[in-house]
Fold:
Amino acid sequence: MRPFDDRPVLVVVTGGIAAYKTAYLVRRLREVGAVVDVVLTRSAERFVGRATFEGLTGRPIGTSLWERPLDHIDLGRRAGVAIVAPATADFLAKLATGQADSLAAATLLAAPCPVLLCPAMNQRMWKHPATQRNVDTLREFGLWMVGPDVGQLAEGEIGIGRMSESVEILAVAGRLLEEQSLEGRNVVVTAGPTRAPIDPVRYVGNRASGHMGQALAASAWRRGASVTLVSGPTTRPHPYGPHVIAVDTAEEMLDALREALEEADLLLMAAAVSDFRVPSPSDSKIKKTGGDLELRLVAGPDLLKETRAARDRRGIVTLGFALETDTPIENGREKLSSKGVDFMAVNEVGDPEAGFEVPTNRITLLDRWGEVEELPVLPKEEVADRILDRIEARLD
Ligand code: CTP
Structure:
């Protein structure tokens, strides 16, 4: 999966208890297609053995400067990104002072690729001015950092010092591998359903998981954009990177959108906005009486139409999604012009491999220049990448 497909990633493991989490990180890197080399420090080997990493990578593991004399040059030279996980206080100090007394330290000193540090240590070790000074120095050197996170530490304390989770490390490493083709751009993405309340307990809503919008937000962020994700309720974790604004109703989504669009260059409108709302929701729970309940629904705002003037004024390139049951291409084309968007991704309802609650999608991408591109069934992450490739080609 992009951007990891067949890309060489170097993982340097140093001697902290969080090293056990690095085994899972390496597995995830392999799952998304990376070719992973692992270097262990001597103390890392006390926490997780080389057999574990050899099994996970299917490649020889480096531990010493003396095994293959040029490893410390070759490993960094072929890597697209180097990840140090966990990065201990001791190892940060070594890197900050340019030491090269182990394969791990020498490799990073010679590595021309971006280096991502994932610190993990006791909270007092992290907060110590010596560590903080080393961290500042390493940032000045141009090294990247993710974490440490706040939470339960191995020794039972609660505080800052946990190594970041694999999803976060993968997201940042992915950004370091990707060409920064959207750097300097502000991208707004909407995702998920909206809810129209009936009373404090019940609502009218749409079927949507938020997955497609999240994949678009993640892909735009990886390409260097500054991303705002306006999300309706979802059970899925939000992607690492974008600034998330959580909303419930279509009206709240419209307010958030209006504000976000003031800075935007690109709008990706993947939310399944509910078209109807209950005119005056009850403040208290409606009790059942044994009889039927009749519900009157009135039209809610159409967000693309409501924001059209602002989008036109600012020249915001816009993508919409059209979910159709009948004559999808004609309907999609009609929506493209009536909603004033530049691109329309058309989905067909009822396709078992597309739409809500499945991890794949099948779309036809229309644009206002009359082009039609039919994409095969792909994971939603890949659909997002293909959509953004297409939009980027038109951006300038
Ligand atoms: N959309 C919107 N505001 C709404 C409904 C939809 O901005 N109230 C946006 C969606 O986010 C999507 C596009 O409009 O990008 C098309 O959504 P869709 O549900 O297919 O179209 P509708 O306008 O709801 O038309 P219909 O339900 O009649 O097909």
Summary: DSSP finds 15 helices and 21 strands in the chain. The first strand starts at residue 8 and ends at 13. The chain has two domains: 8-177, 186-395. The domain at 8-177 is CATH 3.40.50.1950 (Rossmann fold).
